[in-house]
Design brief:
The chain is an alpha/beta fold. 26% of the residues lie in helices and 28% in strands. An 8-stranded parallel barrel has the order 8-9-16-17-18-19-20-23, surrounded by 5 helices. The protein has a 7-stranded mixed β-sheet with strand order 1-7-5-6-4-2-3. Helix 4 runs parallel beside helix 6. The relative contact order is 0.07.
Length: 745
């Protein structure tokens, strides 16, 4: 009898144990951004409805947050009768929370509304990840950075209030806390200012809009009037809505540049007096606010109304891409420079920004400006938004100023996210999901005392090429989810393979909710190395988990290998396979020209951001992608010449030569102004073959022929002199980039 009882006990225990394993196995805790601590439990919350007990002062707010989730909720005044208990624990940091889910109870502990709200967002994710059940678990969580921002440009293309709310909804789900609203531009003024009605009547509308890319020549336009603006009542509605999601709205009122729309409405604010027109194409325009008392009075009046509408601590004043031509030509500006003892027009811009900062500070607000506000002297209390790389952020932090990192290299979501030829038109560049995820906001150049000034990071969505809300969503998500984990989760917990598995589920959910999410999770990143003897090896760099590399044989069959070899003058499609499906592919054409495999020494190294496969990239037999400069086959230089010395190892007679350059002024990339070719038999004594200017071109990928017919040499030195400082248009005042592809000989 005892033995029978013992076996019955073992049988029941085994059933319970297997049930626990099954419950445990069914749990999906793929919360994004990844919490600081997650402890999985067994079983699920026994859900019928949510009887919520919360602090009386905030009870109605928490009930509304739960109601927004679509759950059946009731208010419970007695903690003992509630199955969802929200407790204030002031030992927690402001945005931290603890979430404990048990079979009969959910406990949320935090010190503020923010912490509770973030706990509920994690709870919401648990529900849809687990088929409308809530798994038992324990989560302790807090953000790494205090500033976690997303930006939206509504000036180039206007998007209605319902969409902006929808954008904020997705931001809130991933625990962003700042929404940077870009409201004024050369192409449109989007905020009602009651004192200046012509901003609504004139500045909010342009006559037509550019069709195609800015670099397409000649420019074509649609001939349709375009525009719109938000009333002050709509602004208040949006600000309140964002506040309910624990998001602070930061308005951007551009000054002194990017102001052509305002000048069209009030031409007396410009240096020439006009007439001006709201811009119909993209780029940077030379007409900017003149630093007169009339301009300052106008901007102060605007700030009065803006400050009253936005209760947050910041007003963004732009300060970027301000051409100085109109100031240089203005007698008034030149007198003002002398009168104020300023060095030049850069210091005049600093004078402008500091004058406006003083006024904005009087309104109880702090300013944020793009990193150009460092030029000529930084305003005393300004926060710097570092976009032209990270150096502006480093400089500002070393001056003890707060910094928000948003470099183009990792945070500009208007860049292409795939090299697929079917991608929608974009401004240029290449920023895949993995690169966003790899971003580290705190630069190594800062010591421990300076690192505290890095407040966080922001993703930017500029809408020149995003006329529809679907395109905005496609460009923003899931890259914004990757950045959310960068700014929230612990640096040591980041793992891209794990993130890929998790974000795939989030993409499916967002798509079910009607969000137009891009799905470029699995990107084929080829590593190509010269093996000699006319062979180049091709393998996959950072092969995603669960994926394999494949190519087709001559019969059209897939061949899966870790590494392939290409020989002279061959072309091949390489495919990335996952679960039996091709998820990405790339075409490689290999030409073993006379320069293939030469030893290449570069006098100046390429930028760390654009270093391809090193100097050998220039002669590996593979042409760079003609549509995008973000691929591994381009070497990028900024402000430096490309000086490449090729050593063939023996005397070689050359009968053909060309060199590939990328040409995209809208992205600050220009072909060289001059090419110099020199030959040498010993690498010491050089003879100039030719030095000639490079003719301008409208082609993105320029193949410039080199006069190397019947040249016999062992060493060939090619010098490409850079364009230099950009004098007008995008990036004015900055050093142009030089991108070099294949040298074909």
């Amino acid at each position: 009898m005892k033995q029978l009882c013992y076996f019955i006990f073992l049988f029941i225990f085994a059933l319970q144990f297997s049930s626990c394993i099954e419950d445990h196995a069914d749990h999906d805790l793929s919360i994004l951004p990844l919490p600081q601590e997650v402890e999985d439990g067994h079983g699920f919350f026994a859900r019928d409805n949510f009887k919520i007990f919360a602090p009386e002062d905030d009870r109605s707010y928490y009930m509304n947050v739960f109601s927004d989730l679509g759950w059946d909720t009731t208010n419970e005044n007695k903690e003992g009768k509630a199955n969802v208990v929200i407790k204030m624990d002031y030992s927690f940091k402001e945005e931290a929370y603890e979430l404990i889910v048990e079979r009969k109870k959910i406990l949320i502990r935090a010190s503020s509304r923010k912490g509770v709200f973030y706990a509920i967002q994690s709870l919401k994710q648990l529900v849809w990840l687990n088929n409308n059940q809530i798994p038992n678990c324990k989560i302790k969580d807090e953000p790494r950075f205090s500033y976690r921002g997303m930006h939206l440009d509504v000036a180039r293309h206007f998007h209605d209030l319902d969409f902006v709310k929808r954008y904020i909804d997705v931001m809130a789900m991933y625990k962003y806390n700042y929404f940077h609203w870009h409201l004024t531009e050369d192409q449109g003024w989007r905020i009602e200012i009651k004192k200046y009605p012509r901003l609504q009547e004139i500045a909010a509308y342009r006559d037509e809009t550019l069709i195609g890319h800015y670099t397409d020549q000649p420019h074509q336009f649609d001939g349709k009037k375009y525009g719109g603006y938000y009333t002050q009542e709509e602004i208040k509605e949006l600000v309140a809505y964002a506040e309910s999601k624990q998001i602070v709205v930061i308005p951007e009122i551009e000054m002194p540049g990017h102001s052509l729309a305002a000048l069209a409405a009030y031409p007396e604010l410009g240096c020439s007096g006009g007439p001006y027109k709201v811009a119909t194409k993209w780029g940077v325009f030379e007409d900017v606010y003149c630093p007169t008392e009339k301009s300052f009075a106008f901007l102060e009046d605007v700030i009065d109304e803006v400050a009253a509408l936005f209760p947050g601590p910041y007003i963004h004043i732009g300060g970027d891409e301000c051409p100085k031509k109109s100031w240089k030509e203005s007698a008034f500006c030149q007198r003002l420079i002398k009168q104020e003892g300023l060095k030049d027009e850069h210091e005049l811009q600093s004078y402008f920004i500091q004058k406006m900062e003083k006024y904005i500070n009087q309104k109880g607000k702090k300013i944020i400006g793009w990193d150009e506000i460092l030029e000529g002297g930084l305003a005393p209390n300004a926060t710097v938004m570092s976009w032209r790389g990270i150096q502006g952020g480093i400089d500002a932090a070393q001056l003890n100023h707060e910094v928000i990192m948003t470099p183009t290299s990792h945070c500009y979501f208007d860049y292409y996210q795939s090299t697929d030829e079917n991608e929608p038109l974009a401004i240029g560049g290449y920023l895949p999901l993995e690169k966003v995820y790899s971003f580290e906001p705190i630069p190594d150049a800062l010591d421990e005392s300076q690192q505290k000034y890095i407040k966080g990071a922001q993703g930017n969505v500029w809408t020149e090429y995003m006329p529809t809300t679907a395109q905005v969503e496609y460009m923003a998500f899931p890259r914004a989810i990757a950045l959310a984990e960068v700014v929230w989760s612990a640096k040591t917990s980041k793992n891209y393979d794990r993130f890929l598995v998790d974000v795939e589920k989030h993409i499916a959910y967002l798509s079910d909710q009607g969000i137009n999410v891009a799905n470029h999770l699995y990107v084929l990143d080829l590593d190509m190395k010269t093996e000699g003897n006319g062979v180049i090896s091709v393998s996959a760099r950072n092969l995603p988990q669960g994926c394999s590399l494949a190519a087709k044989d001559s019969f059209g069959n897939y061949i899966r290998e870790k590494q392939f070899e290409l020989s002279k003058n061959t072309s091949e499609f390489f495919m990335l396979n996952k679960d039996g499906k091709v998820v990405d592919q790339k075409f490689v054409s290999f030409d073993q020209h006379n320069g293939f495999g030469a030893k290449v020494d570069l006098y100046f190294p390429p930028s760390e951001k654009y270093k391809g496969f090193g100097s050998a990239t220039l002669v590996n037999g593979i042409l760079a992608d003609g549509d995008s400069y973000g691929g591994k086959e381009w070497l990028g230089f900024q402000g430096e010449s490309m000086i490449a010395t090729l050593n063939f190892g023996e005397m070689k007679t050359l009968n053909y030569g060309s060199i590939q350059f990328f040409n995209s002024p809208d992205s600050w990339i220009y072909p060289p102004r001059q090419l110099i070719l020199e030959g040498s038999a010993d690498g010491e004594n050089w003879k100039t073959i030719i030095a000639e200017n490079v003719k301008p071109s409208n082609n993105k990928s320029m193949l410039v022929e080199l006069p190397t017919r019947n040249i016999t040499t062992q060493y060939l030195r090619i010098t490409a002199l850079p364009h230099g400082e950009i004098k007008s248009g995008q990036g004015e005042g900055n050093q142009a980039w030089l991108f070099v592809g294949e040298i074909v000989l």
